[in-house]
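look at this:
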Amino acid sequence: MRLGALIALILIFAFPGTAVAAPAPPVTARVAFLMDTTSGTVHYAKHATRRVPVASLTKVMTAYVIRREARLDDVVKITAADVRYAAANGATVGGLRAGERLTVRALLYALLLNSGADASHALAERYGPGTHRFVAKMNAAARGLGLDDTNYVNPDGLPARGAYSTGRDQTTLARAAMRDPVIATIARTKSRTIAHHTFRNTNELLGKGVIGLKTGYTNAAGYCLSFVAVKYDHTYMGVVLGETTEARRYASARTLLDYAIDQNR
């Protein structure tokens, strides 16, 4: 019998009627963090300040910056370079076509639902202007939010030397991003058709209280998920980083949410 379970049994028999907190569940992700943002309680932390790559969770910051730089009705022309960039790097795409003109609102759906690197490239080039300047804005926003263990090198999360964040920082970013009603609406959307494109959310955890936020994967980062859920008037936000499979990414997030929700019953 594990030591935590043995102690719980001893307390129950020694002090009948005493509530004993359940032991924290095992999670196989390299990094995991979960907090109840309503009460401020941190329910789970595993290597929460370890600097690791976060793959396409990077696009949450891209969206956060865009909401401060652009109007939703701005029109952006998609270039051949935007399409080539995503294709050449084997990235996920929004299916954008060179020469078409799309609003910033549409590109945010492509960015956050499909996780399109073509969308992130187009937005960065327009609102940097240029990717280098846009990344500087991302890092300035990170400093402004107190993300002291986060550094961005590109707007999409593709593998790059010097790109990293932490579970705690990504949860702080999620909290800031979800305060934006546009990002919050997009994050909970399962699919949306705009201008002959149908964008589909890659987050399979949506529903039953889960309202966001973003998936990510690269070989270096493993399977990542930034997740947000509302249950019994409490809002829970957390991340799993470096999971070994897509299924485990969702299973670990669900395990953490079930554990935290149970603590508030």
